[in-house]
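#structure-requests
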Amino acid sequence: MNKAKPITILSDYDITLFQGGNHCRLYQKLGSHATEVDGIKGVSFAVYAPAANKVSVIGNFNQWRAGTHELYPRWDNSGVWEGFIPDLEPGTLYKYAIASHTGWKGIKADPYGRLHEHPPMTASVIWQDKHQWKDEDWMTHRHQRNRLGAAISTYEMHLASWRKNGDGTPLSYLQLAEQLPAYLNEMGFTHVEFMPVMEHPYDPSWGYQITGFFAPTSRFGTPDDFKYLIDQLHQHNIGVILDWVPSHFPTDGHGLGYFDGSHVYEHPDTRKGFHPDWQSLIFNYGRNEVKSFLISNALYWIDEYHADGLRVDAVASIVYLDYSRKEGEWEPNKFGGREYLEAIDFLKAMNETVYQYHPDIITIAEESTDFPGVSRPTYSGGLGFGMKWMMGWMHDTLGYFKQDPLYRKHHHNQITFSMIYQYSENYVLPFSHDEVVHGKGTLLSRMPGTGKDQFANLRLMLGYMFTHPGAKLLFMGCEFGQRNEWNFATQLEWGNLDFESHAGIMAWTKAMNHLYQHERALHECCTKPEGFQWVRVDDYQQSVLAYERIGLNPDKKVLVILNMTPVDRPQYRIGTEEHGEWTLLNHSDKPEYWGQGRDVPEKVVIEEMAWEHKTRSMEFALPGLTVVIYKWQKAKGGEGKSKAKAVHKAKAKTKKNPLTIPSKLSNKKCKAKPKRILTC
């Protein structure tokens, strides 16, 4: 029997931090690491298996025989086993053969493994990074791109089903690096969010059942390949957000479950340790060693892969003891409440840690309830996330737009309600993958009407999203109105773009992305009440909404008006107290967006006509099912007043309908380009 060479990998201080739940970089010590001991090259191994009686490293270097290379338990009863095996090289396959005091035996992949075999194979792979980062400029300035008030428009994507090769295989990390950055730049997205890239055994889980928390999946290439993809995105000024899943993990035999014959990672009480919806195990958030594992994992992806943010999955399932459980299936906390206190403490510690070391990143919570203070600092009682998905806005918006426009007046409160609680959190407006699967249809299929009206409704809804306060998130395929539900096994329906209707949706999404970035009023104060002002909130009879978006410079504000019915409103008047004029930025009825090309005035001058208890007013032409967006220009001296009078007199002489379709349809395309701006 050849035991591994004794070696001390973790210091006493490491163990103290580990056992206290405060070690945030365990990946530097636990797992396998190419190293040199006494001039001999090899690999060090360290694994946490507190209930083990024996632990040995098995692999293709010793014919997978247990007992040939045993690790040594530390003298401090910490449960950590260590050892050094000479002459091993990167690329070697390995696992841990573990025997417990109770007689249980198991073979496990390395919880800290940086690479695992391509599924369905499950061995860990010794890996040594070689990638040389070239994203210094991005890393230096990313605080400007990630801060509250920056223009953040995120493209959520599932790597395996974005595009396929001719033989049906998904694009590799390297192929994605060639195609994805240019596409995102052209479309005007500022960030991309990858659904879980961590190693997982089951494709239909979409990556949400993770077995290799420290390894990007080998389906698309090596860890260095994935780093190259992120590097290329950064060099094209695209931020990268990774979907992170600390809420549960699968029961696969090679994974974390019952790791050493005991409940190392999962809670031993099934009321806290087993998820009934997903048939998976739940981390024991009250165990300090597990807390250190998870916090180290969060920091690992930011440290080692330069991730710009983490979107944390299923936060509601973490913070509530009764999540998806009936009465009698859960146990209240020590105060008699339903909050999972240890899990809440873990989330706070995770956010505090990653922001301490990387204050320029974003953590985003997918939290589907009204749990208070999700995106508020921990020092004020919050969970400490940077942002939160605005699930209520998403449900209300989709619920409103699915209504036949004839009945929308009865649902007016659905589309206005979000502003009641808009500033309770720092919000992301999400049209995510969850909204285009499981029989829900697509964004397009939810829209009422047929033909032109259906696409007009989708453009209207997207225009509403891009002008509503909050960061934006759009799942892949939604940018061109894919017709069929997302299928993880096939690529997006890029053939839809052969039709002018879908190409029009893509052109509109592109235009709105660039407008959102270029017009500071649309993003600078998205988390501040002074950044939004209702202009027309109560016109439910005509289903018209109007609001102003205001940035740090109030003289550069933007007016958004949405006509939610197919009825043209050629003389829609709004009262005001201001002088000046409004210049058209864009509207969704243009021919290049597959609209009808109805005339919308390029300029609207404020007139000296009292209206609705206001001393002045302005008149807009609102095509049916259209959003129009104007920018204000303040009047200089008395110029605005005299000009407004002249316009009013001119209007009295003619009754021309501004909504007639012009004889020549303009094909002028939006040329606004992304602009990075320091914001509040």
